[in-house]
Amino acid sequence: MEGEHRDIRCMVRKLSDNNWEIPKGHIPNMRVPGRLFVSESLLDGIEPGTIDQIANVATLPGIQKYSMAMPDAHLGYGFAIGGVAAFDTEEGIISPGGVGFDINCGVRLIRTNLRKEDVVPEIKRLTDELFTNVPAGVGSKSRFRASDQELDGAFLEGAKWAVDAGYGVEADVEHCEGNGYLEGADTAHVSTKARKRGKPQLGTLGSGNHFLEVQYVDEIYDREVASAFGLEEGQVTVMIHCGSRGAGHQICTDHLKELSQAVKKYGIEIPDKQLACAPAQSREAQNYFKAMLCAANYAWANRQMITHWTRESFEKVFGRDVDDMGMSLLYDVAHNVAKLEDHNIEGRKKEVYVHRKGATRAFPAGHPEVPAAYRDVGQPVLIPGSMGTPSFILCGAKDSMDVSFGSACHGAGRVMSRAHAKKEFHGQSVKENLEAHGITVRATHPSVIAEEAPGVYKSSSEVVNVVHELGIARKVARVIPLGVAKG
DNA sequence: ATGTCC
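The joint structure predicted for all components is written out below.
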Protein backbone atom coordinates (compact mmCIF):
# COMPACT_ATOMS: atom_id res chain seq x y z
CA MET A 1 0.00 0.00 0.00
CA GLU A 2 1.24 3.45 -0.86
CA GLY A 3 0.46 4.78 2.64
CA GLU A 4 3.21 2.67 4.17
CA HIS A 5 5.85 4.65 2.32
CA ARG A 6 4.79 8.02 3.72
CA ASP A 7 7.00 9.46 6.42
CA ILE A 8 5.08 10.09 9.61
CA ARG A 9 7.54 12.83 10.64
CA CYS A 10 6.55 14.91 7.61
CA MET A 11 2.89 14.81 8.61
CA VAL A 12 3.18 16.30 12.08
CA ARG A 13 4.74 19.32 13.75
CA LYS A 14 6.11 19.09 17.28
CA LEU A 15 4.50 21.62 19.62
CA SER A 16 6.12 20.33 22.82
CA ASP A 17 7.06 17.01 24.38
CA ASN A 18 4.33 14.43 23.70
CA ASN A 19 2.27 16.97 21.79
CA TRP A 20 2.17 17.05 17.97
CA GLU A 21 0.03 19.06 15.60
CA ILE A 22 -1.44 17.77 12.37
CA PRO A 23 -1.69 21.06 10.47
CA LYS A 24 -4.93 22.17 8.85
CA GLY A 25 -3.34 21.66 5.43
CA HIS A 26 -2.93 17.90 5.88
CA ILE A 27 -6.10 17.29 3.86
CA PRO A 28 -8.60 19.77 2.36
CA ASN A 29 -11.45 21.21 4.44
CA MET A 30 -10.04 20.69 7.92
CA ARG A 31 -11.93 23.05 10.21
CA VAL A 32 -9.43 22.68 13.06
CA PRO A 33 -5.95 21.18 13.36
CA GLY A 34 -5.30 17.70 14.67
CA ARG A 35 -3.40 16.85 17.83
CA LEU A 36 -1.56 13.64 18.54
CA PHE A 37 -0.30 12.93 22.05
CA VAL A 38 2.66 10.57 21.70
CA SER A 39 6.28 10.31 22.70
CA GLU A 40 9.06 10.41 20.08
CA SER A 41 9.35 6.62 20.19
CA LEU A 42 5.60 5.94 20.00
CA LEU A 43 5.30 8.35 17.06
CA ASP A 44 7.31 6.03 14.83
CA GLY A 45 4.81 3.24 15.47
CA ILE A 46 1.78 5.30 14.37
CA GLU A 47 0.44 4.33 10.94
CA PRO A 48 0.08 7.20 8.42
CA GLY A 49 -3.57 6.11 8.05
CA THR A 50 -4.16 6.97 11.70
CA ILE A 51 -2.95 10.53 11.04
CA ASP A 52 -5.33 10.69 8.07
CA GLN A 53 -8.20 9.55 10.30
CA ILE A 54 -7.46 12.26 12.88
CA ALA A 55 -7.41 14.81 10.03
CA ASN A 56 -10.63 13.41 8.51
CA VAL A 57 -12.48 13.97 11.80
CA ALA A 58 -11.22 17.58 11.78
CA THR A 59 -13.36 18.22 8.66
CA LEU A 60 -16.63 17.35 10.41
CA PRO A 61 -19.09 20.20 11.08
CA GLY A 62 -18.99 21.89 14.46
CA ILE A 63 -15.78 20.27 15.72
CA GLN A 64 -14.29 22.17 18.68
CA LYS A 65 -10.64 23.13 19.28
CA TYR A 66 -8.94 20.19 17.58
CA SER A 67 -9.36 16.57 16.57
CA MET A 68 -7.14 14.55 18.87
CA ALA A 69 -5.76 11.12 19.52
CA MET A 70 -4.24 9.50 22.57
CA PRO A 71 -0.82 7.76 22.68
CA ASP A 72 -2.42 4.34 22.08
CA ALA A 73 -3.96 5.55 18.79
CA HIS A 74 -4.38 3.14 15.92
CA LEU A 75 -6.61 2.64 12.88
CA GLY A 76 -10.30 2.29 13.62
CA TYR A 77 -13.63 2.42 11.82
CA GLY A 78 -13.73 6.04 10.55
CA PHE A 79 -12.34 7.61 13.71
CA ALA A 80 -9.01 6.36 15.02
CA ILE A 81 -9.17 4.23 18.15
CA GLY A 82 -7.76 6.51 20.83
CA GLY A 83 -9.63 9.41 19.23
CA VAL A 84 -11.39 12.20 21.12
CA ALA A 85 -13.53 14.85 19.42
CA ALA A 86 -16.10 17.32 20.76
CA PHE A 87 -18.87 18.85 18.64
CA ASP A 88 -21.11 21.86 19.06
CA THR A 89 -24.65 20.84 20.08
CA GLU A 90 -26.19 23.04 17.36
CA GLU A 91 -23.68 23.30 14.51
CA GLY A 92 -22.04 19.94 15.15
CA ILE A 93 -22.71 16.29 14.42
CA ILE A 94 -23.00 12.95 16.20
CA SER A 95 -21.24 9.95 14.62
CA PRO A 96 -21.29 6.23 15.55
CA GLY A 97 -17.73 5.97 14.21
CA GLY A 98 -16.67 8.24 17.06
CA VAL A 99 -17.92 5.72 19.61
CA GLY A 100 -17.16 2.39 17.94
CA PHE A 101 -18.97 -0.91 17.61
CA ASP A 102 -18.42 -2.03 21.18
CA ILE A 103 -20.42 0.75 22.81
CA ASN A 104 -19.27 1.36 26.41
CA CYS A 105 -16.52 -1.13 26.30
CA GLY A 106 -14.99 -0.33 29.66
CA VAL A 107 -13.09 -1.40 32.72
CA ARG A 108 -13.87 -1.79 36.40
CA LEU A 109 -11.64 -2.61 39.33
CA ILE A 110 -12.74 -4.43 42.48
CA ARG A 111 -10.62 -4.09 45.61
CA THR A 112 -10.05 -6.88 48.10
CA ASN A 113 -8.26 -6.93 51.45
CA LEU A 114 -6.59 -10.21 50.45
CA ARG A 115 -2.84 -10.31 50.05
CA LYS A 116 -0.97 -11.77 47.10
CA GLU A 117 0.29 -14.61 49.31
CA ASP A 118 -3.32 -15.49 50.33
CA VAL A 119 -4.37 -15.87 46.71
CA VAL A 120 -1.36 -17.40 44.94
CA PRO A 121 -1.88 -20.90 46.45
CA GLU A 122 -5.53 -20.86 45.30
CA ILE A 123 -5.08 -19.12 41.96
CA LYS A 124 -5.78 -22.10 39.71
CA ARG A 125 -8.94 -23.00 41.58
CA LEU A 126 -10.01 -19.34 41.68
CA THR A 127 -9.39 -18.80 37.96
CA ASP A 128 -11.30 -22.02 37.17
CA GLU A 129 -14.17 -20.85 39.35
CA LEU A 130 -14.29 -17.43 37.66
CA PHE A 131 -14.09 -19.03 34.22
CA THR A 132 -16.98 -21.34 35.15
CA ASN A 133 -19.17 -18.66 36.70
CA VAL A 134 -18.72 -15.94 34.06
CA PRO A 135 -19.54 -17.14 30.55
CA ALA A 136 -16.96 -16.05 28.00
CA GLY A 137 -16.40 -16.38 24.27
CA VAL A 138 -18.00 -15.34 20.99
CA GLY A 139 -21.76 -15.81 21.15
CA SER A 140 -21.65 -17.13 24.72
CA LYS A 141 -24.94 -17.17 26.61
CA SER A 142 -25.60 -15.89 30.09
CA ARG A 143 -26.61 -17.89 33.17
CA PHE A 144 -29.25 -15.18 33.58
CA ARG A 145 -32.34 -15.51 31.40
CA ALA A 146 -33.43 -11.91 30.94
CA SER A 147 -37.10 -11.19 30.30
CA ASP A 148 -38.02 -8.31 27.98
CA GLN A 149 -38.75 -6.21 31.04
CA GLU A 150 -35.36 -7.01 32.56
CA LEU A 151 -33.63 -6.22 29.27
CA ASP A 152 -35.42 -2.85 29.28
CA GLY A 153 -34.17 -2.33 32.82
CA ALA A 154 -30.57 -2.89 31.71
CA PHE A 155 -31.00 -0.60 28.67
CA LEU A 156 -32.56 2.22 30.69
CA GLU A 157 -30.91 2.01 34.10
CA GLY A 158 -27.62 0.15 33.63
CA ALA A 159 -25.75 -0.83 36.79
CA LYS A 160 -28.60 0.56 38.92
CA TRP A 161 -30.99 -1.98 37.39
CA ALA A 162 -28.52 -4.80 38.08
CA VAL A 163 -28.08 -3.77 41.72
CA ASP A 164 -31.86 -3.49 42.18
CA ALA A 165 -32.13 -6.99 40.68
CA GLY A 166 -29.79 -8.31 43.38
CA TYR A 167 -26.44 -8.11 41.58
CA GLY A 168 -24.37 -5.99 43.92
CA VAL A 169 -24.80 -3.20 46.42
CA GLU A 170 -25.78 0.47 46.28
CA ALA A 171 -22.16 1.58 46.77
CA ASP A 172 -21.23 -0.11 43.49
CA VAL A 173 -23.41 2.32 41.56
CA GLU A 174 -21.86 5.34 43.29
CA HIS A 175 -18.43 4.15 42.17
CA CYS A 176 -19.21 3.99 38.46
CA GLU A 177 -18.66 6.79 35.95
CA GLY A 178 -22.03 8.57 35.77
CA ASN A 179 -23.41 6.28 38.50
CA GLY A 180 -23.43 3.41 36.04
CA TYR A 181 -26.04 4.78 33.69
CA LEU A 182 -26.68 7.64 31.31
CA GLU A 183 -29.99 9.45 31.17
CA GLY A 184 -31.91 9.84 27.94
CA ALA A 185 -31.78 6.23 26.75
CA ASP A 186 -34.83 5.20 24.71
CA THR A 187 -35.46 1.57 23.73
CA ALA A 188 -37.77 2.72 20.91
CA HIS A 189 -34.59 3.07 18.82
CA VAL A 190 -33.21 -0.38 19.64
CA SER A 191 -34.14 -2.88 16.92
CA THR A 192 -35.75 -6.26 17.52
CA LYS A 193 -32.55 -7.80 16.23
CA ALA A 194 -30.40 -5.91 18.77
CA ARG A 195 -32.76 -7.03 21.54
CA LYS A 196 -32.63 -10.60 20.32
CA ARG A 197 -28.82 -10.60 20.37
CA GLY A 198 -28.60 -8.75 23.68
CA LYS A 199 -31.12 -10.73 25.69
CA PRO A 200 -29.20 -14.00 26.17
CA GLN A 201 -25.83 -12.21 26.53
CA LEU A 202 -26.60 -9.96 29.49
CA GLY A 203 -23.99 -11.18 31.99
CA THR A 204 -21.27 -12.44 29.65
CA LEU A 205 -17.65 -11.44 29.18
CA GLY A 206 -17.31 -11.68 25.40
CA SER A 207 -14.07 -12.34 23.57
CA GLY A 208 -11.05 -10.66 22.00
CA ASN A 209 -9.18 -8.43 24.42
CA HIS A 210 -11.94 -8.68 27.03
CA PHE A 211 -10.94 -10.37 30.25
CA LEU A 212 -11.59 -11.03 33.89
CA GLU A 213 -8.35 -10.88 35.82
CA VAL A 214 -7.12 -11.43 39.37
CA GLN A 215 -4.15 -9.14 40.02
CA TYR A 216 -1.97 -7.75 42.78
CA VAL A 217 -0.65 -4.24 43.33
CA ASP A 218 3.11 -4.38 42.80
CA GLU A 219 4.00 -0.71 42.69
CA ILE A 220 2.57 2.51 44.08
CA TYR A 221 3.57 5.74 42.33
CA ASP A 222 1.48 8.15 44.38
CA ARG A 223 0.91 7.22 48.04
CA GLU A 224 -1.62 9.95 48.78
CA VAL A 225 -3.91 9.11 45.87
CA ALA A 226 -3.42 5.35 46.34
CA SER A 227 -4.57 5.77 49.91
CA ALA A 228 -7.67 7.68 48.76
CA PHE A 229 -8.33 4.85 46.29
CA GLY A 230 -7.81 2.23 49.03
CA LEU A 231 -4.79 0.63 47.37
CA GLU A 232 -1.54 -0.67 48.84
CA GLU A 233 1.35 -2.86 47.73
CA GLY A 234 0.68 -6.59 47.75
CA GLN A 235 -3.10 -6.14 47.74
CA VAL A 236 -5.19 -8.33 45.43
CA THR A 237 -7.55 -6.63 42.95
CA VAL A 238 -9.90 -7.89 40.23
CA MET A 239 -10.24 -6.18 36.86
CA ILE A 240 -13.18 -6.67 34.51
CA HIS A 241 -12.81 -5.50 30.91
CA CYS A 242 -15.85 -5.96 28.66
CA GLY A 243 -18.61 -4.13 26.83
CA SER A 244 -22.11 -4.31 25.39
CA ARG A 245 -21.67 -7.55 23.41
CA GLY A 246 -23.90 -8.23 20.42
CA ALA A 247 -26.44 -5.64 21.58
CA GLY A 248 -24.07 -2.69 21.20
CA HIS A 249 -22.67 -4.09 17.97
CA GLN A 250 -26.14 -4.42 16.45
CA ILE A 251 -27.20 -0.95 17.63
CA CYS A 252 -24.11 0.53 15.99
CA THR A 253 -24.70 -1.44 12.77
CA ASP A 254 -28.39 -0.48 12.58
CA HIS A 255 -27.80 3.23 13.07
CA LEU A 256 -24.76 3.38 10.76
CA LYS A 257 -27.15 2.46 7.95
CA GLU A 258 -29.53 5.25 8.87
CA LEU A 259 -26.75 7.78 9.31
CA SER A 260 -25.18 6.89 5.95
CA GLN A 261 -28.48 7.98 4.40
CA ALA A 262 -28.55 11.08 6.60
CA VAL A 263 -25.16 12.21 5.28
CA LYS A 264 -26.73 12.54 1.82
CA LYS A 265 -30.01 13.97 3.08
CA TYR A 266 -28.32 16.78 5.01
CA GLY A 267 -25.59 17.33 2.41
CA ILE A 268 -22.67 16.76 4.79
CA GLU A 269 -19.33 16.38 3.02
CA ILE A 270 -17.26 13.62 4.60
CA PRO A 271 -13.84 12.44 3.38
CA ASP A 272 -14.55 8.83 4.41
CA LYS A 273 -17.87 6.93 4.28
CA GLN A 274 -17.06 5.43 7.66
CA LEU A 275 -17.58 8.88 9.17
CA ALA A 276 -21.36 8.60 8.68
CA CYS A 277 -23.01 11.20 10.90
CA ALA A 278 -25.93 13.61 11.12
CA PRO A 279 -26.50 17.10 12.53
CA ALA A 280 -26.57 16.79 16.32
CA GLN A 281 -30.18 17.89 16.65
CA SER A 282 -31.51 15.90 13.69
CA ARG A 283 -33.94 13.04 14.27
CA GLU A 284 -31.39 10.56 12.91
CA ALA A 285 -28.55 11.67 15.21
CA GLN A 286 -30.78 11.81 18.26
CA ASN A 287 -32.23 8.36 17.54
CA TYR A 288 -28.70 6.96 17.36
CA PHE A 289 -27.73 8.79 20.54
CA LYS A 290 -30.72 7.41 22.48
CA ALA A 291 -30.00 3.87 21.26
CA MET A 292 -26.26 4.28 21.97
CA LEU A 293 -27.17 5.23 25.56
CA CYS A 294 -29.17 1.97 25.83
CA ALA A 295 -26.07 0.01 24.81
CA ALA A 296 -23.91 2.01 27.23
CA ASN A 297 -26.31 1.20 30.06
CA TYR A 298 -26.44 -2.47 29.03
CA ALA A 299 -22.62 -2.61 29.31
CA TRP A 300 -22.74 -1.19 32.84
CA ALA A 301 -25.39 -3.75 33.81
CA ASN A 302 -23.21 -6.45 32.23
CA ARG A 303 -20.11 -5.49 34.22
CA GLN A 304 -22.24 -5.27 37.37
CA MET A 305 -23.57 -8.83 36.95
CA ILE A 306 -20.06 -10.12 36.31
CA THR A 307 -18.96 -8.34 39.50
CA HIS A 308 -21.60 -10.26 41.45
CA TRP A 309 -20.42 -13.62 40.09
CA THR A 310 -16.82 -12.61 40.78
CA ARG A 311 -17.70 -12.01 44.42
CA GLU A 312 -19.52 -15.35 44.59
CA SER A 313 -16.48 -17.08 43.12
CA PHE A 314 -14.20 -15.59 45.79
CA GLU A 315 -16.70 -16.59 48.50
CA LYS A 316 -16.68 -20.15 47.26
CA VAL A 317 -12.90 -20.46 46.99
CA PHE A 318 -11.96 -18.67 50.20
CA GLY A 319 -15.03 -19.59 52.26
CA ARG A 320 -15.40 -16.01 53.45
CA ASP A 321 -18.03 -13.31 53.07
CA VAL A 322 -17.50 -10.58 50.40
CA ASP A 323 -17.60 -7.82 53.02
CA ASP A 324 -15.06 -9.67 55.10
CA MET A 325 -12.82 -9.81 52.01
CA GLY A 326 -13.38 -6.08 51.39
CA MET A 327 -14.62 -6.63 47.85
CA SER A 328 -15.77 -3.09 47.11
CA LEU A 329 -15.76 -1.43 43.72
CA LEU A 330 -12.97 1.10 43.21
CA TYR A 331 -14.42 2.46 39.99
CA ASP A 332 -15.86 1.68 36.55
CA VAL A 333 -14.92 3.66 33.44
CA ALA A 334 -16.34 3.71 29.91
CA HIS A 335 -13.89 4.01 27.05
CA ASN A 336 -16.21 3.91 24.01
CA VAL A 337 -18.99 6.45 24.40
CA ALA A 338 -20.36 9.85 23.35
CA LYS A 339 -21.63 12.17 26.06
CA LEU A 340 -23.03 15.63 26.58
CA GLU A 341 -20.51 17.43 28.79
CA ASP A 342 -19.67 20.98 29.81
CA HIS A 343 -16.26 22.20 28.69
CA ASN A 344 -14.45 25.51 28.65
CA ILE A 345 -13.91 26.56 25.08
CA GLU A 346 -12.32 29.88 24.19
CA GLY A 347 -12.93 31.14 27.69
CA ARG A 348 -16.57 30.22 27.98
CA LYS A 349 -18.40 27.22 29.31
CA LYS A 350 -20.40 25.32 26.74
CA GLU A 351 -22.12 21.99 26.33
CA VAL A 352 -20.64 19.71 23.67
CA TYR A 353 -21.02 16.15 22.44
CA VAL A 354 -17.70 14.56 23.42
CA HIS A 355 -16.92 11.37 21.49
CA ARG A 356 -14.37 9.09 23.16
CA LYS A 357 -13.41 6.06 21.15
CA GLY A 358 -10.79 4.07 22.95
CA ALA A 359 -10.24 6.91 25.39
CA THR A 360 -11.07 7.19 29.08
CA ARG A 361 -12.69 10.12 30.82
CA ALA A 362 -10.09 11.58 33.21
CA PHE A 363 -11.79 14.36 35.18
CA PRO A 364 -9.51 16.07 37.69
CA ALA A 365 -9.90 16.82 41.40
CA GLY A 366 -12.79 19.14 42.16
CA HIS A 367 -14.91 18.21 39.15
CA PRO A 368 -18.54 17.77 40.29
CA GLU A 369 -18.91 14.49 38.39
CA VAL A 370 -16.09 12.84 40.32
CA PRO A 371 -17.58 10.75 43.17
CA ALA A 372 -17.30 12.38 46.60
CA ALA A 373 -14.82 9.75 47.79
CA TYR A 374 -12.32 10.81 45.10
CA ARG A 375 -13.28 14.48 44.67
CA ASP A 376 -10.06 15.71 46.30
CA VAL A 377 -7.73 13.63 44.12
CA GLY A 378 -9.45 13.13 40.73
CA GLN A 379 -11.40 10.28 39.18
CA PRO A 380 -9.78 6.86 38.94
CA VAL A 381 -8.58 6.14 35.39
CA LEU A 382 -8.24 2.40 34.76
CA ILE A 383 -5.90 1.31 31.98
CA PRO A 384 -5.99 -2.41 31.24
CA GLY A 385 -2.90 -4.13 29.92
CA SER A 386 -3.14 -6.99 27.47
CA MET A 387 -3.21 -10.60 28.67
CA GLY A 388 -0.34 -11.31 31.02
CA THR A 389 0.94 -7.72 31.13
CA PRO A 390 0.59 -5.03 33.82
CA SER A 391 -2.43 -2.74 34.08
CA PHE A 392 -2.34 0.77 35.49
CA ILE A 393 -4.45 2.84 37.81
CA LEU A 394 -4.18 6.58 37.32
CA CYS A 395 -6.19 9.59 38.44
CA GLY A 396 -7.55 12.41 36.31
CA ALA A 397 -5.12 15.35 36.50
CA LYS A 398 -5.56 19.10 36.34
CA ASP A 399 -4.61 19.71 32.71
CA SER A 400 -7.06 17.18 31.24
CA MET A 401 -9.88 19.70 30.92
CA ASP A 402 -7.77 22.18 28.94
CA VAL A 403 -5.74 19.71 26.92
CA SER A 404 -8.00 16.76 26.09
CA PHE A 405 -11.66 17.47 26.97
CA GLY A 406 -11.05 15.64 30.25
CA SER A 407 -9.73 12.47 28.60
CA ALA A 408 -6.77 10.08 28.73
CA CYS A 409 -5.67 6.88 27.00
CA HIS A 410 -7.43 3.52 27.34
CA GLY A 411 -4.82 0.80 27.01
CA ALA A 412 -2.25 -0.86 24.84
CA GLY A 413 -2.87 -0.80 21.11
CA ARG A 414 -2.56 -3.93 18.99
CA VAL A 415 0.57 -4.10 16.82
CA MET A 416 -0.22 -7.35 15.00
CA SER A 417 -3.41 -8.65 13.35
CA ARG A 418 -5.20 -11.65 14.85
CA ALA A 419 -4.39 -13.70 11.76
CA HIS A 420 -0.71 -12.79 12.01
CA ALA A 421 -0.69 -13.54 15.75
CA LYS A 422 -2.07 -17.05 15.15
CA LYS A 423 0.78 -17.76 12.73
CA GLU A 424 3.39 -16.26 15.01
CA PHE A 425 2.29 -17.84 18.31
CA HIS A 426 0.87 -21.11 19.57
CA GLY A 427 -1.71 -20.87 22.32
CA GLN A 428 -0.34 -23.75 24.35
CA SER A 429 3.22 -22.44 24.45
CA VAL A 430 2.07 -18.88 25.24
CA LYS A 431 0.04 -20.36 28.10
CA GLU A 432 3.00 -22.36 29.40
CA ASN A 433 5.20 -19.30 29.21
CA LEU A 434 2.68 -17.25 31.19
CA GLU A 435 2.32 -20.00 33.79
CA ALA A 436 6.11 -20.08 34.15
CA HIS A 437 5.77 -16.42 35.12
CA GLY A 438 3.12 -17.25 37.70
CA ILE A 439 0.11 -16.27 35.57
CA THR A 440 -2.75 -18.76 35.26
CA VAL A 441 -4.82 -18.50 32.07
CA ARG A 442 -8.19 -20.07 31.28
CA ALA A 443 -9.60 -19.51 27.78
CA THR A 444 -12.30 -21.08 25.62
CA HIS A 445 -9.73 -22.13 23.01
CA PRO A 446 -5.90 -22.03 22.66
CA SER A 447 -6.26 -19.77 19.59
CA VAL A 448 -7.72 -17.08 21.88
CA ILE A 449 -4.46 -17.15 23.84
CA ALA A 450 -2.37 -16.91 20.65
CA GLU A 451 -4.41 -13.96 19.35
CA GLU A 452 -3.96 -12.11 22.62
CA ALA A 453 -0.32 -13.03 23.31
CA PRO A 454 1.60 -10.30 25.15
CA GLY A 455 3.75 -9.71 22.06
CA VAL A 456 0.86 -8.58 19.86
CA TYR A 457 0.27 -5.39 21.86
CA LYS A 458 2.25 -2.23 22.47
CA SER A 459 3.49 -1.78 25.99
CA SER A 460 0.86 0.02 28.05
CA SER A 461 3.55 1.49 30.33
CA GLU A 462 4.89 3.64 27.50
CA VAL A 463 1.37 4.85 26.72
CA VAL A 464 0.63 5.60 30.36
CA ASN A 465 3.86 7.58 30.75
CA VAL A 466 2.74 9.96 27.99
CA VAL A 467 -0.54 10.91 29.68
CA HIS A 468 1.30 11.21 33.01
CA GLU A 469 3.93 13.53 31.55
CA LEU A 470 1.28 15.59 29.77
CA GLY A 471 -0.48 16.16 33.11
CA ILE A 472 -3.85 14.79 31.93
CA ALA A 473 -3.76 11.72 34.22
CA ARG A 474 -1.26 10.85 36.97
CA LYS A 475 0.12 7.39 37.66
CA VAL A 476 -1.11 5.95 40.95
CA ALA A 477 -0.41 2.22 40.92
CA ARG A 478 0.57 -0.73 38.77
CA VAL A 479 -1.09 -4.15 39.03
CA ILE A 480 0.30 -7.48 37.84
CA PRO A 481 -1.89 -10.41 36.72
CA LEU A 482 -2.11 -13.64 38.70
CA GLY A 483 -5.02 -15.33 36.94
CA VAL A 484 -6.89 -14.47 33.74
CA ALA A 485 -10.21 -15.78 32.36
CA LYS A 486 -10.85 -15.02 28.69
CA GLY A 487 -13.21 -15.85 25.85
C1' DA B 1 -15.16 -5.67 19.05
C1' DT B 2 -18.79 -8.92 16.51
C1' DG B 3 -23.98 -15.09 15.79
C1' DT B 4 -15.25 -13.01 13.25
C1' DC B 5 -19.86 -12.78 5.79
C1' DC B 6 -27.10 -12.18 5.18
